[in-house]
User: Fold this.
Amino acid sequence: MKKVRVAILGIGTVGGGTYQILTENHDWIAAARGLDIEVAKVLDKSVDRITAKGVPANKATADLNDILSDPSISIVVETMGGVEPAGTFIMKALSAGKSVVTANKELISKRWSELEATAKKNGAGLYFEASCVGGVPIIRTLNDAMQANRITQLYGIINGTTNYILTEMTEKGKSYAEALKDAQALGYAEADPTADVEGFDAMYKLSILSSLGFHTCIPYSEIYREGITAITPADIAVGKDFGYTLKLLAIGKRDGNDVEVRVHPTFVPNEHPLASVRGSFNAVFLTGDFVDDIMLYGRGAGARPTGSAIVSDVVYCAERSAHVYSDFDNNGKLDSAIKLKKDFESAYYISLKLADRPGVLSKITNILGSYGVSIDKAMQHGVADNYAPVVFFTHKTDETSMRKALHEIETLDVVHSVDAVIRVL
Amino acid sequence: MKKVRVAILGIGTVGGGTYQILTENHDWIAAARGLDIEVAKVLDKSVDRITAKGVPANKATADLNDILSDPSISIVVETMGGVEPAGTFIMKALSAGKSVVTANKELISKRWSELEATAKKNGAGLYFEASCVGGVPIIRTLNDAMQANRITQLYGIINGTTNYILTEMTEKGKSYAEALKDAQALGYAEADPTADVEGFDAMYKLSILSSLGFHTCIPYSEIYREGITAITPADIAVGKDFGYTLKLLAIGKRDGNDVEVRVHPTFVPNEHPLASVRGSFNAVFLTGDFVDDIMLYGRGAGARPTGSAIVSDVVYCAERSAHVYSDFDNNGKLDSAIKLKKDFESAYYISLKLADRPGVLSKITNILGSYGVSIDKAMQHGVADNYAPVVFFTHKTDETSMRKALHEIETLDVVHSVDAVIRVL
Assistant:
């Protein structure tokens, strides 16, 4: 049986999950795949931290050189997170000819090109299934199952924290602040939740997934991003009445050389398979020119599902003598042939407070109409504080027209406030 | 760029789709994967049949030897269907050292062992992603993404014909006969629909998927199978009222060495992700000990999605110098360690017509109770032809107790008929 010796860098949540799988399911993997995978070394800041997780002391180290200098270790698993020192450690491992399996989406989306070039130069593999959508095999699917297709659309609920918060707001009417607090208490959100709730995490993942899906470099800096902090339970409830569920959606589209990539709150029609992805579950909905629609659904985070993706990469890597690399250089710039569309087409939900006077509504619709924005549905729900809360759902329009119309609407003296503007799928 | 010459055996629907992808997306695949894939030969019963599909005459042949004797052809795609002559042709191709990509679920589930042994002996690859669930990468996921896990459950809607028929019955109230006729008119069902509607197709696929998922041989002959021909729109409507959607479900479970495998109509709770898989779409819902629940959803059939899976196998095969084989021998017998459970546990829906007299209902519930079957919900819906139609939903019970109870119930003189017995997920 082929012996494979692995080192794990960082024994936090995901590193711990990985260690647990490789220990508990060692014999199962050996029987099923003919691989005897041994965790040879575990690195963390201190040896005590490692042994506290049940790792034998002789495998624990705080010195990377113990791993780099051991030629019997062929695969290094990086589960430290963050750009540094993870980036330096991975570069050293690749330079030493060791293959790397990482769960680090931020690092991959920022330094993919450099890492991949170093991997290639040293004949090492670079695998990062665990960097996107936890246990869901979305990278394997894009790389090894969609090769026949031009992917034209990629819609993802790819951040579990925000999906948990939005589900709580939707199903229990919680405010954003309450739902965030509960998510933090459950360990679904960090003390500083910015990376999740402002859409950075989803942006990094979309950069990786759309690059792989569209076979071109999509730098994360080109992705339009909007978080969920301004969402109210009232907006969610109105959307519900009209048959929509609010999701933080990562959207990528490619039509010839026109590409658009964006992360923002989106009302999804309830009939769409993504609408029923609840709580901390994630899903990616893809369309290819031949395969048509497919969706992958599962746990987007957590020690065990993310550990499952890492171990899947370890086995995949160990079974291959020659590694396969991406076909493009993620060098931070768009390919010159690609036209990045910034003026998205979308339908919109708009919530306003208007003076409770005759003729006010027609002023709004006239302005919208003058910019070519036509209304699909409208509703006035009672009168509050002398103002009439009104919502509109528009037909599809371009972003620029909508912004101009809103700008003009905001200046009207009969408009008390524009409370929410949310895109509709 | 690596040149790959491919032959296609059988230019029907799926073979035609494969040819179309390899022609239309040739340059895209070449740019994305560095593979120049050429269809070198297409075989069918007559050359005219092939050229009618737009294949140049110099690539058309009715003689397998034209393919076997061409050493430049490294991959043979089999899209003829049926056990013979497909089986003989594949064996000859493998024996000639050519890798085979096939969409043939019946052949794989009947002769996998022999085919794989021949592939191994000749250093050839054997790939069959397209044999199960069309464009959905379920085999890739089981082989290359779930390696860390013991799969404990596999629930699939893996036959598009029956899912289309049941969806039409559910959403439009059609009878089984009407829905079947419409499915035939649309090309979703064959003139003789037996293989689909009696569950044989799902049984073959479950045999393949559960073998791969559970890492042991599950012969199709060991799978319990029940079709959808006795389903009525009335049962579906009652289920709907109670929050269930009827699906033909393929179910596999493994708990240690206890395995159960079955295909039968099943009421699925509406909250379950499988309940919303409509029309000709398919999905597989898996549970692994580490990954937890995942679901893959997409088109289970059709020229383009199935062609997508075939071409994905062609690329996957062409990119690998060493092929990976299954870890077990599907030799038609269960591994001696495996205990196949025939006495399934399930909740049940029972529909009966009872005499419209006092005390009748309690006779039924007493019998059920005497076999340990407890009732979850019950409903009497009016009186028809002097008989009261009554439905029960039971809690989980074992199959044997339920059968005994039903047998006793059927002999009661107050029971006009037991109209339906459907398992509930």
About this structure: Chain A has a mean pLDDT of 95. Chain A has 15 helices and 18 strands. Chain A touches chain B through 55 residues (CB under 8 Å).
